[in-house]
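COURSE: Structural Biology Practicum
ASSIGNMENT: Worksheet 4, Part C
STUDENT ID: 0417
INSTRUCTIONS: Below are two proteins. For each, the amino acid sequence is given first, followed by its structure token string. Answer the questions at the end about the second protein only.

PROTEIN I
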Amino acid sequence: MKIGIVTFHWAVNYGAVLQAYALQDYLRGLGHDACLIDYKPYNRDHNLKNFVLNRKLPHPFQYVREALKDRLFEDFRRDYLVRTKRYGSLEELRQDPPLCDIYISGSDQVLHPRTLMRGERRPAPVYMLDFGPENILRAGYAVSFGCTAYPPEAAEVARKYINRFDLLSVREKTGAGVAESLGYNGRLWVVPDPTILAGASVYDRILSGVSGLSGKSGGSDVSEGGTATYLLHGKDSLNAVIEKDFGKTVPLNGCSIAQWIAGIRNASRLVTNSFHGTVFALLFHIPFVALLETGAAAGMNDRFTTLLSRLGLEGRILPDYGGRRAVKIIGSEIDWANTDSLMEDYAREGRDFISMLLSARQ
């Protein structure tokens, strides 16, 4: 079958790109013609116009770094993702939609209220699949709302489109409640992020393309092991504190996607506030501590508890970095055989949902 996936494959974020790759790779491995619908809003392109309109003027160097990093990511997209032609707006998708048997939205925070309301600087329900012929089966796989309660203005818009999904699964337990609050009238499933679906071996193909598994990240060699850190949302300042507790750190940012994976696989330990950083630590048996978000980003924290409570590892979550607590957590042993078994059980639930989805279209 022809399957079109719309997600954040264009984002300059390791987890976003890798979850897109993982879902596409899994579906293609089943023999289906799966591709990424290459929707990226024009306002997310790196150019002078968006530099001004996206209010990046106070942060020119950060903007340039992200643009350069995006070039590395585009190399990966070109080599590993099968994409349709480029779509830059909902209008373009509605006028000339890719013809598929199934549309899948997700995974990642594709149903975040900010994306719905401001993804194109105006409401654009692309990730609610409001495009294409009516006879195409529409599904959400492990979608995330990125919040525990939808803001009223966004909820009013979302209610118009939420039942475009014939089948809907969410990544976080709280996502089921959000979907119900928006008026979704079908059954809801909680399934794992695509990066978990097929286990660690699916990334061997990517790692084989990294000569010696080496590369530079933040001035450090990602092949050298030691304490890796992957810190998002302005938390890089924690590296200096972490070094006092664990010695030299290897910050995993600014490297290629393959080098990022290698950096985690080769690490002795990982400190991260990234959900996907946590996932890859689990896949590669790396002792880790997961830091939660605060403030407006706190709505994203349930992704950690949904996953780690399934594995009996919720004790590895910290509300904020604390040296003694982090050292104690990192030093505690993980029963990897049991963790692998529980991860496989969780992955099977995702594969079962996909099997049901494919059967519904046949």
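PROTEIN II
(use this one for the questions)
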Amino acid sequence: MAKRELKILSKDAKDLRHRILFTLFCLGIYCLGTGITIVWATPWLGTLYGQLDFLGVFNLMSGGGFERFSIFGLGVTPYINASIVTQLLTMDIIPYFKELKEQGYVGMQKINRITRYLGIALAFVQAYVLTVFLLGVTDVAMILKITLVMTAGTSFLLWLGDRITMKGIGNGQSLLIMASIVLSLPAVFTGAYELFIGESTYTTWVGVLFFIFYLLMYLLVIVGVVWITLAERKIPIQYANKTVSAYGAKESYLPLRINYAGVMPVIFASMLLTIPSIIVNIIGNQSAIDFVNNYIMYTSWTGFILYIALIIFFSYFYTFMAMNPEEMSKNLNKSGAYIPGVRPGAETTKYISTVVSRLTLVGSLFIAILAGLPILVSNITGLDQSIAIGGTGILIVVGVAIETYKQIQSGLVSRRFAHRSFK
């Protein structure tokens, strides 16, 4: 029997190893593609470099592939924008989308399919607009070639992300975003080193101290994200058809995470604040550009406040979209469970909604502080904007890494439990 269990565990380890290798292989393809520049865009790239400050987050999300106009230059940002649109539509704005949401798994599959089609359409529009207005290409054939290649690149990444989700580990789209940021982070840290120490802006010891403080700030962000991602509130529940023994009984509980939305609010807020900058720079109106830079971009004080407010808003929006208190109350009632001291039905819904709201407030404020800390330091000290963007990147990378680890761990536990039950 021991040999059989070892054989099963060995098989599980082999399957996990294959999934990890497959995921790394897919991420390797993505990293390779970000370095392949679209050959038709090369003649116009000379005027592009150094003019991408307003697209810093956009370039970060593409692993630096946007500034090279690579085949994966758009990354999966069109899909993120499409996700925001479809989630807004499910909030009783269009009855059809609300009906799809209420259909459960089948409805969500249809919504995901619509999101992908919308993401590809947005990729085409974004690629066309950026090719015409940012690169300044006037030849119709060249515009169509560059636009179609970038759209095809985004379509391939959506397919690649689905393959990772199905045959690899973790969420494919999130891992692609994480890989993009990891590719860009070395340049961010190298730039910070050059700014503090290499360029002689400060005296040697002052520059070294500033750089150490810079690294400690990122360490604080990492520790904070780990803590807030793993923290949860356990609400005790009791089953009506079961008796609780006083001796060694395992208490059942309903786990509610403090930050259920993870780093998605940071991604949504960053992308949303980038859109006005793209629009005004494409239009070319200098007064509009100055207004956006002075009041909308999160490197300004008003933009910083707006950025924090958007993170809190998307935290609530994403949490209550994914974790409906009314549905949780119904599921508890169907399984014969109840919260001690709370009546089933409307009171349970109200109780869960209140707890989730309070937890989300704490989690969203904590994530907002972590995301805003590098930006605040950049605004106070006048440091380069890439430092602020790098802080957002670290937040996203750590959050996605923790989620992927938890999925691996839960998968291993469930398989071992299934094998032991079969035995």
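ANSWER KEY EXCERPT:
Q1: The two ends are 9 Å apart (CA to CA).
Q2: The longest strand covers residues 232-236.
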